[in-house]
Amino acid sequence: MPHIVNHPLIQHKLTLIRNKNTGTKEFRENVNEIAGLMAYEITRNIELREIRTETPLMSCMTWELARDIVLVPVLRAGLGMVDGITSLIPTAKIGHVGMVRDHNSLEPINYYAKFPYRIKNSVVLVLDPMLATGGSASATLDRLKKEGAFELKLVCIVGAPEGVERISKDHPDVEVFLAALDDGLNEKGYILPGLGDAGDRLFGTNDFPF
Ligand code: PRP
Ligand code: URA
């Protein structure tokens, strides 16, 4: 089962981005804010190591993150989640995977991939606002595993049951985090009720086609 990160602030902002009258600026701001709030919850249990620190008064033992954190936004729409997370984790490295769904087959086409050098030993957060059929996320996780990454978390804002099932079948080792689990998909592969085309709404590339 996916983890539903349903903090009241996230739910309030989710309502704003679902609203068809929310424009590009407000949509982009709220996607980033939701991503930051989700990352705060998701990183609650990540590994720490103890280090010695000199305060102005004395030496004491303190904690720091034990592992690098790598964010991998799935282009394009995943880019909309990056700034909200790097404002909390400014040392995070960033990889990129380009995936676009063929509009007829709904199959993902991988057109770009570039990763930080130390991705193998990092905690990797894969970012995409939408988990619809799960094809794009599954192919992204395949690509990352080929690169040697093994501690992978999939962070999406809205998911469909079909996408959740696909990830649990293809990648049972990957934890899935959502702000909401929606009802299903329409015949064109859009999530219902969803929020429309996340990439288009983030980047203002299309009038809403419904
Ligand atoms: C959207 C979305 C996901 C994918 C989800 O991207 O951002 O990557 O669809 O659908 P799936 O779960 O059925 O694969 P899209 O292909 O529209 O590309 P874009 O981000 O460039 O708009
Ligand atoms: N991609 C989107 O951007 N929205 C959906 O509803 C499904 C896939």
Structural commentary:
This protein is an alpha/beta fold and 210 residues long. The protein has a single domain, classed as Rossmann fold (3-Layer(aba) Sandwich), CATH 3.40.50.2020. 30% of the residues lie in helices and 30% in strands. It contains 6 helices and 15 strands. The chain has helices at 8-18, 24-42, 82-86, 135-146, 161-170, 198-203; strands at residues 3-4, 48-54, 59-65, 69-75, 93-94, 96-101, 108-114, 123-127, 130-131, 151-155, 158-159, 175-178, 180-181, 184-185, 191-192. Strands 1, 4, 5, 6, 7, 8, 10 and 12 form an 8-stranded mixed β-sheet that branches. The chain has a 3-stranded parallel β-sheet with strand order 9-11-13. A hairpin with a 6-residue loop joins strand 6 (96-101) and strand 7. It binds 1-O-pyrophosphono-5-O-phosphono-alpha-D-ribofuranose and uracil.
Task: Write a brief structural summary.
This protein has 210 residues and is α/β, with parallel strands linked by helices. Helices cover 30% and strands 30% of the residues. The model has no long low-confidence stretch (mean pLDDT 95).
